[in-house]
Amino acid sequence: MAQNRRVKxxxxxxxxxxxxxxxxxxxxxxxxxxLKTFKKLAYDHNQAVKxxxxxxxxxxxxxxxxxxxxxxxxxxxxxxxNLNTLKATLQLLLKDSDPDVKATAAQALQRLASE
Length: 115
Prior knowledge:
The protein is an all-alpha fold. The chain has helices spanning about 10-15, 20-30, 35-40, 45-55, 60-65, 75-80, 85-95, 100-115.
C-alpha cells in the first residue's frame, strides 16, 4: 500500500508512523508523498529512513534543509550529495563541524558552479 502512487496523501501520512521501517521507507520513495509527510519522515527516529529521505531525488528542498541540520553527519552528507540540494543549503553545510560534510558540500558547490 505504501508503494502505491494512488494512495491518498492522508493514508501516506498515517503510514509514515508505521512501526515497520520498510513501510516508512516505501512512503519516503512514493512519488505521491507530500511535503507534510516528508517533513514527518525527516524527523523519523530511524537513521535508515532519514537516509532514504535525504537521498531521494524528489524530496522537497524544504525537507533537505531540515535534514541539513540533523544530528547525524551521515544524514548531512547525504543531503550534500543530493543533486537537488540548493546552493543556500550547501553553503550552510560548508560551515558544518564535520570535515566530511564540509568536503562533500564543497564538491557539490563546485559541481553547481560548473553547470
